[in-house]
Amino acid sequence: xxxxxxxxxxxxxxxxxxxxxxxxxxxxxxxxxxxxxxxxxxxxxxxxxxxxxxxxxxxxxxxxxxxxxxxxxxxxxxxxxxxxxxxxxxxxxxxxxxxxxxxxxxxxxxxxxxxxxxxxxxxxxxxxxxxxxxxxxxxxxxxxxxxxxxxxxxxxxxxx
Length: 160
Fold this sequence. Notes:
Structural class: alpha+beta
């Protein structure tokens, strides 16, 4: 569990430091171009990942924060019981990302997003490092589970 807590802490720290830098150095209308497909921008998101459920005011902020904290509590419980290091790391990434966004909601009433990827005039909704950590943790967790299911079925079929 200690490893997962370290990963969570590092995720929160890098997320918050990146947002602090954006908050202090980028104006609301400024766009920093990073090649042909990415920008750094400054966008406040009152919804969840990728601006879903945006615009529900203080009640939305409170509900989303409480939901995220309840999910983190469940994931911490899971992490405490988990023995596989890969899953512990993934849970650490998810918890750290969720807490990074909760900190923003508490401090600002919204989450600061700044990564803007685009192609041919179409933009993916802006996101931040916390969202990235959540997605990476969830993706690897799902892939790991699918791999273990596949190997169990393969072994079962070989034994029959």
